[in-house]
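Chain particulars:
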Amino acid sequence: MFDTMTMTKVVGAFCGTLLVLLLGGWVAEIIYHPGGGHGDEHAQAYSIEVPETGAAGAAAAEETGPPFEEIYAVADAAAGEELWRNCRACHALEPGVNGTGPTLHGVVGREVAAVEGFNYSGALRDVVEVWTPEELDGFLADPRGYAPGTAMTYGGMRRAEDRADLIAYLATFEG
């Protein structure tokens, strides 16, 4: 079925195709990477600046908006009651009732780690002494970034308005 000439044509076609592919790659390398081969360091013709991410980037983004004091001054405690549903899985608002987390009754203005009978992680005591609205805002924005090593697993609340509303709602439960 195959004679010598057919086999020679098949091998020649395969080698010719391979040669065209190699030459095409070589030409493309010259066009798109002029002046050298691999390993040559070339400066970028145009660099795009990328904003920082993480805690520093979040803090910088927060600084561009109005200060928290202004947001908190117009906070809506009724809207904060709706946001409370995220917290009640682990916390209670009744005095002396602890869940996975300590009771949040009277948390605004309370000393950190002051709830009797709750085993706090040491991370919070190292960061802050009293839960002011501003300190609660920082903690609720990014608990693990604010107090590295905290046992709180909540991912954080993005919007400053939501945090202010929640803190205003918690402030209605004074100890």
Remarks:
- Residues 56 and 105 are 31 Å apart (CA to CA).
- The helical segments are 4-32, 55-64, 68-73, 77-83, 122-127, 133-141, 143-146, 160-171.
- Residues 4-32 form the longest helix (29 residues).
- The chain has eight helices and no strands.
